[in-house]
Amino acid sequence: MAKKESPDVPLTIFRTRFPKAPGMIIYDNACNLHTYALNRDPLFFQHTKFVVDRFHWRNHTACSFGYCMKLYSTMQHINSEVNEQENSKSEKIEDAACLHDT
Fold first, then answer.
1. CA-to-CA distance for 30 and 94, rounded, in angstroms?
2. Where is the composition biased (Basic and acidic residues) (predicted)?
């Protein structure tokens, strides 16, 4: 997504594309998404663990450490930065395409 989205965007994606909520959601704004989701559909998300990805955790100074991926040994193998890595590749391709058009 090119712009900052409200928690409603990922919530709508999960509610419209998943028959059952995922067991874990790793997301840059998981703390706010967690609250938003539980206020709107608590039964659907009752067993979902919400954690902030490693790349964005450093900015979450007021959040509970329960949202920190580093605290969960079962999540150590997960590349939580894959979205940022793919976005970076897309931006490079987009920049190259813009240069080509000039």
1. 28
2. 86-102
pTM, two decimal places: 0.74
DSSP of 13-49, one letter per residue? Answer: HHHHH-SS--SEEEETTHHHHHHHHHHH-TTTTTT-E
10 Å Cβ neighbour count for 96? 10
CB count, 10 Å around CB of 59?
11
Which pLDDT score is estimated for 102?
A: 57
Amino acid sitting at position 40: R
Tokens of 58: 């450093």
Alpha-carbon distance 82 to 53, whole Å? 10
